[in-house]
Every structure is written in C-alpha cells, then in structure tokens.
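PROTOCOL LOG
Step 1. Enter all chains and additional molecules of the complex.
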Amino acid sequence: MTRLLSAGFLRLKKNKVFWGGLILMAAWGIFMPVKMHLDAVQMGYVYRIEDGFFVYAMGVGVVMAVFCSLFIGTDYNDGTIRNKIIVGGKRSAVYLANAVVSSVVGLAMCAAYLLPYLCVGLPLVGGFTVPVEMVLLTTFTILLLSVAVSSVFTCIAMVCQYKSVAAVICILLAFGFLMTGMVLAQMLEAPKTQEVYSYAINGEISSVEEPNPGYLEGTKREIVQTLHDINPGGQAIQCAGMMAVNPYRLPVYSLAIIVLATGAGCVLFRKSDLK
Amino acid sequence: MEYVLQTNGLTKKYRHFKALNQLTMNVPKGAIYGFVGRNGAGKTTLIRLICGLQFPTSGGYTLYGRKDTDKDISKSRRRVGAVVETPSIYLDMTAQDNLKHQYRILGLPSYAGMEDILKLVGLADTGDKRAGNFSLGMRQRLGIAIALVGSPDFLVLDEPVNGLDPQGIIEIRELILKLNRERQITFLVSSHILDELSRMATHYGFIDRGQMVKEVSAADLEKSCRKCIHLEVTDTGALARVLDGMDAEYTILSDREADVYAKIGVSRLTLALAEENCDVISLRERDESLESYYVSLIGGQKND
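Step 2. Run joint prediction.
Step 3. Record the structure below.
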C-alpha cells in the first residue's frame, strides 16, 4: 500500500483541484478575520476570534465532495485505476490508499483555513476568550469530521465508476447533509414555550405564555439530537457555532462513519467488475 | 511447451449474457499471440479477466503457472503489462509524469530506465506537453510505455492499432516486433484487423461468441493457407504412392482427402492414379489468406 500511497501523493502534487481547494480555503481563512476587523472598525461590532474560527466546518464537506469525486473519478475516467490492478495491486490496498490520500487532503483543507486565520486573526481580532480545551476539542472534532466526510465521498467515488455521476451524488450529498443539519437544528432550537397574543374587543392586546407544540421532548428529542450528532452536516453546524450539546460524542460518531464507510466501500470495490 | 497464460473453461456472464463461454486458450512463452474475433466476440472480456479487472463466473486461468485463485497471483501479475481498450494515462500529466506515477505504483526505487522507455516508444521529446494534447498514436505509445515500466515479460494489448493512421499502425507493429525480438516479451494482441495481425503474430486464437473456435500457430496457419490443390480421391494410399513418385509435398487429411503443395500436371496425376485404380472425385485449387481462413472458420461455425 505504501507504493500506492507514494503514487497517490505524487499525483496529488500535480492536481489542480487539490491546489484550487487549498487556495480557496486559505483565502476564506484570511477573509474571515479581515472582515471581522473591518466590521469592528467601521460599524463598531465586537467580535471574538472564535466567532469565525470554526466556520470552515460548514465548507469542508462541500470541498471534499468536489475533490474526492474528481480526483478518484479521474482514475476511472482516464482508466488509470487499471494500471494499479493489472500490476498486482490488491483491491483493498488500492481502496485504502485512495481513502488515506482523501483523508490527508481533508486535513490539509482544514489546515489551509486554520493557519491563515490564526496568522491574520490573532493580531487583528485578538486571542481566544473561550477555554483552550474547548478550542482544541472542537478543532479535533472538525478534523475528524473532515476525515469522516472524506471517507463517505471516497466510498461513493470508488463504487460509482462514472466520474460525473459520482460528482453529482457527492455534491448533492454534501449539501443534503447541511440541509438536514439545518432542519434538525431548527427543530431542536424551538423554544419550550411561546407567547400567544390575543386581541380583546376593546382593542387591548394581551399575551399568554403557552407550551410550544413544536418543542421536542423525551425520546423524540433524544432521537433527533442523536441524528443531528451523527449527521456530518449537523456536526458541522454545531461545531461552527460552538454549540455542540454532546461535544464528546461527535468524534465517536465520526469515527463510526469512517469505519462503516471505509469497510462498506472496500467490500463493494473488491467485488466490483472494473471496465 | 511452456505457457505464459492458460485458460480453462473460462466463463463470464453479465446478467443473462454470456460474454465468455467455456473458453480455453494457451499462450506460449515468447509468442505474439493474435487474438482474433469480431466485435463483441469476447476479446476484451477475456483481457479484463486475465488482468484481474473482473472476475470469472466459472472456470479459471493460470498466469505463469499460478492459478487465478492463488493468493500469490499478484506476483504473476507483476510480470504483466497491459493496455486495455483505451490507453490508461492521466491526460493532465506529461508523458514523464505518467511514467513516474507508474514507477511509484510498482515501488521501483528510482526512475532508472525511464528515458530509455520514452525513447523506445518515440516520446522522448514531448517535454512539458500534456498527454491530453497527444495524438491518438502518441497516447497509444504512452500506454505501452506505462505497460513497459517494471520490465514485464508478458504484454497484453487490446486493439492496439484501432483508430490509428497508417504511420501509427506501422510504428506500433514495429514496436511490438522489436520488443518481442529484443526483450523476448510475450504478447497477447487482440484485434479484428487481420492483415495487421498476420504481419506479426506467431500464434492465433480465433474466438467467436465467447468460445475459442481454433488455436493455431502461424506456421501451421501458413501451411493451411498455402496455395495447394485439394484432392478428394477414392484411395489416399494410392495417392501418396503416386505423389511420392513425383517427389511432391502433400498432406493427407483423411482416407479420401489430401492437400498437394506442388505444381503438378493434372492429366499426368489423373493418369498415374488411374494406373493405381484410384479415382479422382474432386479437385480444386486453394489459396487462402488469414482473412479467408477466418471467414471460413467463423462462417463455418456460424453455419453449424
């Protein structure tokens, strides 16, 4: 597998999508603190450095969807995946090498945002105001999340042998994760009670606080919260806002996603007929 | 005879379609094995199977003496290079980068010999030109160059001259002959361009509807394709005595049929046979090319 990894990284060095993604993430990492600084100077807003530090969690899924589907899809499109199998490369090794390269790219995309953000943000916006453990835990969660989404998109790109189809599925799925995350977050954030206003005949307005029928309780809330925690889009939303309800569970779910996606992808790839 | 590849009852089904049906073939070491068949006959399917890209539904094959089910089959595969259908090259990379990538896949410690391979296939001067900007012939040669990395003993080429211009066809043919002669590389070349195959193949395998119709060496094929007189007589023993007397080369095909490879006077032969109480039932001149051989073979099968 080291041979295949070495070949994969050699190709990565020449890959435009990889460098494009890195530049995009780095530009985003510079733009965020600069924008915060300008808003603070021009409009008097008060920002903390952590306000934008984890926002990249929302974008890394989409970037990895594009990268994995194009990088791996090219192997099918140009037929070069055959070169690895014909010379005796084991299918599991071919799969895992691609999974490792994608995961490393996922981590690199995160780093491409974080490092410029810190370099520009620390002098412009100032230091962290939240405990360093929280910053480290959230960073670790997002890094693991980037590996998890890379594993899912690697699985799709390796099993689906058509580059364009794989790209469409991966990108739709990346947005699907985020949309689902937003819907579930909205359900979970619904207030427990709501004010009901009533108009009297004499024109007086009175309000009564009543229980919100949309508020989730008990098992239903737990199920939705678990789904929100498992869903990579949900994890991204929670990390971006630093509002994870179960911060220690998220890395465990990411780990489970990595194992399941890689295992399933590996089994399916080993059985598939290559053209 | 030592064989590089032997298949045994190889069958591949795609849902209800049998692409290969109990196919048996033998590729001798050092041969240029021309794999002939019409489109959809099963040539590419067989190549995909032996390259490990697909799995047989039943039957199997041995590659350098190792069965396809052997867990060490990858060791045999390391001795194989292949260009299946289109050349497998990264179009956004240069010829050199494509080769470097293959060197890494094989785990070779350095890029030694890379320039030689590029020179051999005539791509040494392509510089920074990306493979996407190469002509079809150049891409085909780059595909072969990639297959040559790691010095394989067995090269599998699927329709290597398809779509090439006459110059490109000649270049590929010369390359195959050169590699076979100078590096003793065994080739399995699938094609339906018979004239091209006949210029280089040492062995042939004719496939139709997923089945091997016939395997024959080029020498045997040439013999059966030689200009000859095909005779049907009542007694081939008598015919043999007469032909021996005339010092003529012949092959007895059955107790009533024979091929005579000499220019002999028909009246003289008929008279001599009459003296031996042997009647000539029919007599016809045969002048077969690979094409007519193929047509009679596959056409014959089709009519069966």
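Step 4. Note key features.
The CA atoms of residues 173 and 200 of chain B lie 7 Å apart.
Chain B has two domains: 3-216, 228-286.
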